[in-house]
Amino acid sequence: MTDAPAPAPDDAAPLTQIGADYFDGRTARAHPVRVHVAEGALVIADADGVRQRVPLASLRWPERTRHGARLMHLPDGASLHCADSVAWDTWSADAAGRRDSLVVRAQQRWKWTLASTLVLVLLLVVGYRHLLPWAARGVVALMPESADETIGELALNQIDDSGLMQPSTLSPREQQAMRDAFEQAVGHLPAGDAPRHHLEFRKSGIGPNAFALPGGAIVLTDELYRRMDGDRDILVGVLGHELGHLRHRHGMRMLVQAGTLGAATGALYGDFSSLFAQIPVLLGQASYSRDAEHEADVDAVRLLRANCISPRVMAQFFVKVRQPRAGEPASSGARLPIAFASHPADEERIRYFEQAAADGR
Q1: What's the CA gap between 249 and 321, in Å, rounded?
Q2: What is the pTM of this model?
Q3: pLDDT for position 340
Q4: pLDDT of residue 4
């Protein structure tokens, strides 16, 4: 609405009014005006003395930046621009009673910005290392075990098709003897304590290894079997570790975590195509957390002790796995490429098994 023309008062106190450019929202032409606040309204006066009253509550004040012109939006689509940002800020605070929000004030100070960035990074780290695993555990607990079987079969088929694994060259007799030894060992656990499982043998194109897939498949490679010289006590410990991964459903928890991160990435970049294609890789590389690895090690110790086998055989495993057998390249014993490559430091785990053997845990 407009009032009768009247000039802005000459005796106004400093910064109770300020000059600005008025844009009507229909043309690009700027109209110099003077503005002040009176009776809860913004009063706009141009050189001809024409005034417009706009209720303060209907004004929109864009977020203030540290530098640059100031802007105000009027409800009819018009706007006010002021190049003197310092004067505008002082006027808006003194005359209009406007105060910046805490967020805006923080953005104007580099210390606040740095602190906010550090807090955000801390929250991301805590979320990734603690909240995400906790949430994954809850999600997996609600999932039927049939989902594990479906994903495990899919992963094993894709691993076989990829060329990373080939049919085992171990004799049927060697395979069956290892299966019998493992099942006999599992039979000493309390009834119902062992999850559904079945032992698979493969010749690996990537070296000695053992890993568990959701649904029950435990894959033992020829290379690992031979590196251990077929020592069944050691291999029972290794398979007991993988059985622990199955019992705690670590593979599914890892997939849920990776899927959550993959979905977030897909939402950002619009590409979900590689999410399911990476399932075999994720399961094969099995980059479990230290907590998950320790849980599996505890299960390995339980299985060994249930069969009166000293946990010290697992310490021997780490020594033997570093030593290539005759005819193997020296580099092949330096680092296992899949499951055990991502486990905690060997020395830490050796200490655990040695201590378990010493104190009878």
Answers
A1: 26
A2: 0.60
A3: 43
A4: 42
